[in-house]
Input
Amino acid sequence: MKLFRTFLALGFLSVLPCTPAATNEHAGHNHASHKHDDCDCDHPESRAPIGVMGDHQHGQGEFMASYRYMFMSMDGNRMGDTELSVSQIGTGGGLGFPIVPTRMYMQMHMLGGMYALTDRVTLMGMLPIKDIRMDHVNVLGVSGPAGSNFRTTSSGPGDLTLSALTRIFENEHNSLHLNLGFSLPLGSISERDFAPSPGSPTFQEVVLPYPMQLGSGTIDLRPGLTWLGQNEDWSWGAQSVATLRLGRNRHNYSLGDQIEASTWISRRINSWVSSSVRLRGLAWGNIDGRDPRLPTVGPLGFPVETMDPNRRGGTRMDILFGANIQIGSGWLKGHRIGLEAGMPLQQYLDGPQLQTDWTMTAGWQYAF
Ligand SMILES: [Cu+2]
Output
């Protein structure tokens, strides 16, 4: 949390020294359109916060390359909306899990490309490269000393998302588009690492539990709807995207369906900087089926909560603060840098499950 506060403070400090000196040079433009040639794309507030994917379209023939870095920190466990300590979850007085996860960090490098087929249809592709770490307490002392700590890690590409953003409405200040997307199961669901292994005196290399896997293993539909609005100094929008799993993967389970809805407002600080605030709601289901490679043991059936398919669902509401930097002329024309960070206001988990502590996204986009 300390790191997060420092980060937020830095974010705001970088915005403060810029004098609010919005000019009138943009009067009369159609701000709902993001075509290259009328320069609306060059307003810093014309883009949604960097953490929003598939927010905008391009004029016919235009390309965009983007890179986003995402970091998420999870710290401590929660059941419902109550935080639980390790001793409340572990064996000997707690719920009875021999092993309890305490922290998880996820880093994602997201590589994106966009191409506008027409003024109404923009194609988008995105590939995440993930790096996940999870820390645990070995409460019972499975394959090692009781009370010791251990970490498991996994890394590699996740699922590839492809979508077509199709505009269905546009007027002077507003536009609406469909996000017609799906994801292909490129990410591994067979990540392994050394971990306590029930019945073995030493750590063994085993298949990692669901949240440590890099992909869903299923083809997922990702339908969504995005609304954008803009006037001289402000922009606003809302987006809702669902993730629907088609069938089960080859290890006989499917991750829970998910729905994410965001609404944001962004204000121009000057001709090249804007700041934003966003509310994001998330709801995701439990796992359907069960990975037979994960062990069953003990009265609860699972050595650790992350292996229980019915302790994965939840809902969460986040608040996120962001800044965009976009320069409309010179050799930096077409580049945009964005930063967004936030934390949950509320979360309710089918737990015990690791709770989200804070999250941030930094990114760069280049349109050409
Ligand atoms: Cu773009």
Summary: The helical segments are 2-13, 86-89.
